[in-house]
Amino acid sequence: GEPVGNKAKIPAAIQDFMTEADKQGYHLVFYEINEDLTMLLHENGFDFIKFGEDGLVDVQNFTLAGKRHRGERALMNKFNREGYQFEILQPPFSRKQFLTFKAISDSWLHGEAEKGFSLGFFDPFYLNQAPIAVMRDPQGEIISFANLMPTGGKKTTSIDLMRSSEDAPSGIMDGVLVNLYQQAKTDGYQYFDLGMSPMSNVGTSRFSFTDERIVHLIYQYGYKFY
Q1: pTM of the full predicted structure?
Q2: Residue 203 clears pLDDT 60, i.e. is over it
Q3: Which one, of 162, 163, 225, lies nearest residue 199 by Cα?
Q4: In this model, does residue 226 exceed pLDDT 70?
Q5: What is the pLDDT of residue 33?
């Protein structure tokens, strides 16, 4: 992600960071950065490759009306009809709530290890820093959750960690997201950031670099494995 702080200091900070990494024998990689930082890094000897694009939902113009969203509309009507409830919980969270979140997270992972490179991972301290959106089943039990990521402004909002229990109905995370779009619209946000869409619109031109054309082939033929 983007460096945080005084923008005037970023060039000097990056050079210092590179020097320290070189002393330790490390190679640096910057991931999910904007065009300006990409050009700055290129001037400092970095090469670059496009790996994907941000998926932004314009929540102010988002609607479930029309043929395009009939699947999501049917899903939301089903959840409403059967008594599923969406709620945003505010921190600090109780021990009982964390035990519920942990049980859902463990069910989601199926015994696999966490992957925390560009996505969040289950950590009580981290999760206690911001609100958590949950979906409850007809009995009032929490069956899925996602932690909100405040950005300090009112233009874009997002989430990080998304988890649902193994016995949650199909499409439950879509239900969480649609409710979050509607809540973001009510709160005055313009966009909801779904994060990196891996390999999206990469290497589609016949003039693209070889590396990016290889990425496109992986996306086209190997996405089901991802």
Answers
A1: 0.76
A2: no
A3: 225
A4: no
A5: 82
The CA angle 72-78-84, to the nearest 5 degrees, is: 105
Q: What is the DSSP letter of 90?
A: P
In terms of DSSP bridges, do strands 156-164 and 191-198 run parallel, antiparallel, or are they unpaired?
Answer: parallel
Asked if residue 102 lies in contact with residue 122, where contact means CB atoms within 8 angstroms, the answer is: yes
Nearest to 103 by CA among 210, 95, 178, 25: 95
Quick one: residue 83, left, alpha or beta (phi over 0 = left, psi -120 to 50 = alpha)? left
Confirm if 118 and 32 have CB atoms less than 8 A apart. Answer: yes
Alpha helical stretches, state H, 27-94? 35-43, 70-82
What does 157-207 look like in DSSP terms, one character per residue? EEEEEEEE-TTSPTTHHHHHHHHHHHHHHHTT-SEEEEEEEETTT-S-STT
The answer, yes or no, to whether residue 209 has pLDDT greater than 80, is: no
Cα 163 from Cα 109, distance rounded (Å): 9
Considering only 17-31, 107-121, 198-212, which range has the smallest mean pLDDT?
A: 198-212
pLDDT band per the 50, 70, 90 thresholds, residue 31: confident
**How far, rounded to the nearest angstrom, does the alpha carbon of residue 151 sit from its chain's CA centroid?**
13
> Cα separation of 184 and 191, whole Å?
8
Q: Which residues contact 87 (CB under 8 A, 6 or more apart)?
A: 133, 134, 135, 136
